[in-house]
Amino acid sequence: MRIRAYAGQVSDDQFFDPGLLEAIRSRAARYDRENTFFTDDLTDLIRAGYLRAHVPATWGGGGLSLAELTRSQRALAGAAPATALAVNMHQVWVGVANVVRARGETFADQVLTDAAAGEIFAFGISEPGNDLMLFGSTTQAEPDSAEDAEGAEDAEGGGGYRFTGTKIFTSLSPAWTRLGVFGTDTTSTDAPKSVFAFLDRDEVQAGRVEILDDWDTLGQRASQSQTTLLRGGYAPPERVIRRIDPGPSTDPLIFGIFACFEILLAAVYTGIAERALSVAVEAARARTSRKNDGAPLAHDPDVRRRIASAGIALDGVAQQIEALARDVDESVDHGDLWFPRLSALKWRASEVAREVVTASVQVAGGSAYRTGSELGRLYRDVLAGMFHPSSEDSAHSAMATALLGPTPPPAER
């Protein structure tokens, strides 16, 4: 699989062809304008086998590595950013299962089986006002019974769990069939424990999961990342996959989520920037300058430098995305630098993407400020990158800790 940089085109790809990507691109403006879910895109992607792309071939999937998947996600983001961002969440869960299995554990194998069978996975992780993210949840995870709780340590859950709490930014809200959630078990004898499980779509029909119609945002509108209310949403024992201590952890599940989430997010926002730069290049060739006797703006030294700077920045990020993805695929050990490098990648990619899209808007001129402009939409979509973890502050904190050690308590400073 090869992607022509900045053109949003894929060649020799088993899932995408230019016709499919152009069909997806043609709907993006309407989905954004109407604030509706990308139903037709999802249908096309399922038909193309893209939701099975990262499932190993031996499990009935497409067999793409994480590095290969980053290229496809960049191409998809160039066609429809919100579609790519939402589909990202499904692909992350599949990636997690691959990472866990590569590290010798099988507790996430059901994700591969279900994804191969056509299930659609979404994330129910983020919570309002909770910046602990994967390291602690405000959602209550209540075991089936005291007997189940006592046996939990031996049985990776020891029974089913009921989850009560609020999850935000739940992409794929209209379509998911498996919602990955986590909460805190405070009642078992070994409490507290972070409990990770999957809820079935039937929990919505049963009234134990409610999806609010509250997604009306500046950008990434078609992702329909609604708020999800868990009202005792039930995960049976076979869907409870992990119980671990809260807090920072190198557990394979935590590492898998963090690695795949950060890398694939970086790919999506890089894909947005690549498309924006492509549009800016076209605009620079088409627009002319009266003060320079009608010469194309592509001949203007300032425009050329702006375009070149954007291309150089993107080139570095794209290479780093693939390098870290390959390291995940090959189980390379970065030791204590794994999490700082992943955080830095996501933060750097989203910042570079925002700068490239801004430069592209400047090159294109005032027409990009119109609501019907593709560049204007890409500008709004790329801003969402600052709200995904890792943030600038957490990326710098993680790297400082890795290089300098932890900050001592105030009394010891």
Describe the structure.
- With 413 residues, the chain is α+β, with helices and mostly antiparallel strands.
- The protein is built from 13 helices and twelve strands.
- It has helices at 18-34, 39-47, 66-79, 81-102, 109-116, 146-150, 152-155, 202-205, 252-286, 301-329, 338-364, 374-382, 392-404, and strands at residues 2-4, 9-11, 121-124, 140-143, 161-170, 178-185, 193-200, 209-211, 226-235, 240-244, 288-289, 295-296.
- The strands form four sheets. A four-stranded mixed β-sheet has the order 3-6-7-10. It has a four-stranded antiparallel β-sheet with strand order 4-5-9-8.
- Helix 1 (18-34) packs across helix 3 and helix 3 (66-79) packs antiparallel against helix 4.
- The termini are far apart.
- The model is unreliable at 1-12 and 146-157 (pLDDT under 50).
Helix content: 40-55%
The number of distinct β-strands equals 12
Tell me, rounded to a whole number, the average pLDDT.
92
In sequence order, what are the helices and strands, one letter per element?
Answer: EEHHHHHEEHHEEEHEEEHEEHHHH
Q: What do we call the CATH topology of the largest domain?
A: Butyryl-CoA Dehydrogenase, subunit A, domain 3
Oligomer: single chain
Number of domains: 3
Stretches where pLDDT is under 50 for at least 5 consecutive residues are: 1-12, 146-157
Name the beta content range: 15-25%
What general outline do the C-alpha atoms trace? globular
Rg calc: 22 Å
Question: DSSP helix count?
Answer: 13
